[in-house]
Write a structure and sequence with these properties.
The structure is a homodimer.
Chain A (H helix, E strand, L loop, with lengths): L9 H8 L3 H8 L7 H14 L5 H8 L4 E6 L5 H14 L5 E6 L3 H12 L6 E5 L5 H10 L3 E4 L8 E4 L1 H14 L5 E5 L13 H15 L9 E3 L4 H12 L7 E4 L2 H13 L9 E3 L5 H6 L3 E3 L2 H17 L15 E3 L2 E3 L12
Parallel strand pairs in A: 1-2, 1-3, 3-4, 4-5, 5-11, 6-7, 6-8, 8-9
Antiparallel strand pairs in A: 10-12
Chain A binds a DNA duplex through helix 2 and helix 4.
DNA sequence: CTGAAAGCGCTTACAG
DNA sequence: CTGAAAGCGCTTACAG
């Protein structure tokens, strides 16, 4: 039986260099007060032993975890993954590890929220596309754990979010300008328990939709409104309802590209040509959107992740009890939204 | 200035329960040797203090990290993300945290490989769609760090992989059965430095392609072979070359859905109808594939992630120096591949 | 500038 | 069954 090879520790280095572990620790941590000779001896010893300090031990004595969490509905929101990419690109250049927590239900969301609040779990978290309620937000605040929201907002928490009302407005106005008069709106469930998971983007996009309508003097027809889970399959059903109703819309604005793909499925089912018989606008500009030629609202997914990560890193550098006494609360940031016109929108063939 | 609230420790619990910290630790760790009264006192104290042991301290004294790594080219391989989903679903039910390392270049791959080898970084790693060379494999073995490969193989390492030769064969035979005679093959770069990142799946799929061809008595035409990076845009260029050549193929088998989407783009550019003028088969059955109706080879992406995770968990439970003296090397596992026929393949309109 | 020592919060032989 | 103590591998006041 081979003895398990014990990894080399700071003591080994100290012994070889003929100094105390304190000195080794100092050069390790870039402490400038270590004299030339000692420093060189240590550096040489580190090199010959190929020494790397034990992270866990550092964590314990420093009281930091050197890990950051990303918590998001990664697998049922295509957009989360693209935002994660942004996060990763900035964290990978930092000293922090990134651990991911995938949320599928309210229960997992709540479990992760409270787990992460424990003081020794992570040094910071970015929450993606999940809106903390007031209790959560307060708990985050009290814990002192740096948190930034991406694609969600809360008055007490820093965030990176798009101007969803503007997005909703741009999408709807585009359709109006093309000549559409009956424009349906499909979004996530506004009041179902699961909606807690979503951000409040839906409501804002709806607001934008209404504003565009009212600016154009168009009525708001409740028959043209549908809500349902973030699922292509279910959106397809909703669209089918809309399109087979007595007075169907000539255009549908969907609150996500996923919903929009369901709408396109429904159109195909019913042999409707897009955009001839039906125009559709999505939201997010997920990677696939370009491929399938979907007109949509772009909100710089990857960039929002990047900015969220940068904000968090900023928070980590500014201790709450800063010397000035004022903890610099980093403002929330807004991400630009733009309309991307592709092939799924056009003038209606038969005027309503 | 508020004092930072120190979190409650095992000492607080011990004090409140009127026992030693050793006893608290024992009940925490499910040690059965703790008597009724003591145990109850401790449990009550834990509850009233809402105590949760400090992970970092546990790690240090146990010499485990309780974290597992997933290392993969997440962002340039759509399939990685789906495999990650499988991983996540099993790890989230375990005691381990999952940290992700995204690889974009050979340099980052090598850096992560050697970082993770450090004894105190993680307890295990699953490597997705990256083929370790012999030096890496040996280093992994020597380190004693449990590693499992997903979508890659190495004789010295356990893995979960599909039978790529079979996949290549099935795809090609399908096209032959439809009546195609000139079938092109597009794959990742076989010899470029970056190909080290890819798995050897390409070569096997090529072998399957050749076998199907030779079985049918069809010649292997080098003019119908193209290789290029895992990129839709670049695959589009390769397909264009093929399709504008003097004697173009009537079908293209692409080694990934990403490549296949590039082929579809090229067909669109050239006003070729699919499948009338050109049939195309992809590989992977990524989520989008269903949406765009791509005929492809399914290889249970999520399941392969799940199995990889399960294998790793198994390795963690069987210590290398097992009492029996024989370390049970878990075999590698093969994932089923199936042909999924959708809308991009059909009989060629004009017989070659 | 540098060392001896205490401490971070756990776990676990070792005694009793 | 339970406690006192040592130990995991670092960091950092505190002396000198």
């Amino acid at each position: 039986m081979q003895p398990i090879t014990r990894s080399t520790t700071i003591r080994d280095v100290a012994r070889l260099a003929g100094v105390s572990v304190a000195t080794v620790s100092r050069v390790l941590n870039g402490n400038h007060g270590v004299r030339g000779p000692a420093r060189q001896a240590v550096e040489r010893a580190i090199k010959t032993l190929n020494f790397e300090p034990n992270q866990t031990a550092r964590r314990l004595s420093l009281g930091k975890t050197f890990t950051l969490a990303a918590i998001a509905p990664f697998f049922y929101r295509a957009s989360s993954v693209e935002r994660l990419r942004g996060l990763e690109s900035v964290f990978s250049t930092s000293a922090y590890d990134l651990v991911v927590y995938n949320v599928e239900t309210i229960e997992t969301r709540d479990r992760y929220f409270s787990e992460l609040l424990r003081p020794d779990r992570v040094d910071g978290v970015v929450v993606i596309s999940l809106s903390p309620d007031d209790a959560h937000a307060e708990a985050f605040e009290r814990s002192g754990l740096p948190v930034v929201l991406v694609d969600a907002v809360h008055p007490r928490l820093p965030s990176v979010h798009e101007d969803s009302a503007l997005g909703g407005y741009l999408a709807t106005r585009h359709l109006i300008e093309l000549g559409h008069r009956r424009i349906a709106f499909i979004c996530d469930e506004l009041n179902a328990p699961l909606s807690i998971i979503g951000s409040n983007a839906n409501i804002n996009r709806l607001a934008g939709y209404r504003r565009a309508l009212s600016e154009a003097g168009l009525p708001l027809d409740p028959a043209l409104f549908r809500e349902g889970p973030h699922s292509k399959r279910l959106a397809r059903g909703l669209a089918r309802e809309l399109l087979t109703s007595p007075n169907p819309p000539t255009a549908i604005f969907a609150v996500s590209d996923t919903h929009a793909m369901g709408v396109l499925d429904a159109a195909r089912d019913l042999n409707l040509r897009v955009p001839g018989d039906l125009s559709v606008v999505g939201y997010d500009d997920v990677e696939v959107a370009e491929y399938i030629g979907l007109t949509t609202i772009n909100q710089s997914l990857e960039k929002s992740g990047r900015r969220g990560a940068e904000l968090l890193l900023g928070l980590l550098d500014t201790p709450v009890d800063a010397p000035t006494g004022e903890s610099v609360q980093p403002g929330s940031e807004s991400i630009e939204v733009t309309l991307v016109v592709r092939g799924t929108t056009g003038a209606p063939l038969q005027r309503g």
